[in-house]
């Protein structure tokens, strides 16, 4: 638990703003402090929701994900958390199908550049009896699933939201293969007609509703979140 006096000194030394603005920020800090004391899991979820957009990959429309796929011979992970593109990670040891996450490429099979990650932070293991299981490897800042910190391991479900360090990603899994029917002649005709690239945009595209642009956080709240995500704020 941190000392309110230290918190106040930190705010005063890092803000070149008016006295009124400083007081507002300190009030916010105190509010978050009380929330942390009473319900740290809820506070972590609030911080997660407030910063999720900043954790997304650089490319517009992209998002971080891990897909656990089970074939008739083995399990594999498809993910873009380690690079800015999707990659397939195979584990040739069928008896120990384990993928590790961390910031140290020498200790982790999926290295991630994040200073809040431990060198070998967490692992996903495929178990033929229960599916994909997430393990926390005694990490410093913890492993979270749907906003709740796990203590040892957690059996992952399709659609779970995982947080490791400062990074958020969705987990999806698939083990059921379904055969689809042959497309109808009308579908084949439409695809054939659309094979030629369009030379101009559709006429009604300009009338579409503009994409919603997320408004920035209020300055004081953004400063508060920045402080609480820093190393000075306790994460446990």
Enumerate the strands of the largest sheet in spatial order, edge to edge or round the barrel.
Answer: 3-2-1-12-11-8-9
State Rg.
Answer: 23 Å
Q: Summarize model confidence as the mean pLDDT.
A: 77
Judged by helices, strands and strand pairing, the structural class is alpha+beta
Helical fraction: 25-40%
CATH-derived architecture of the domain at 62-178: Sandwich
Question: Would you give an account of this structure?
Answer:
The protein has helices at 4-13, 19-38, 40-51, 185-193, 219-228; strands at 65-70, 75-79, 87-90, 98-102, 110-111, 122-127, 131-136, 143-145, 148-149, 153-155, 160-164, 167-174. Among the domains are: 18-55, no CATH class; 62-178, Tumour Suppressor Smad4 (Sandwich). The termini are close together. The chain has a seven-stranded mixed sheet with strand order 3-2-1-12-11-8-9, with helices on one face. It is α+β, with helices and mostly antiparallel strands and 236 residues long.
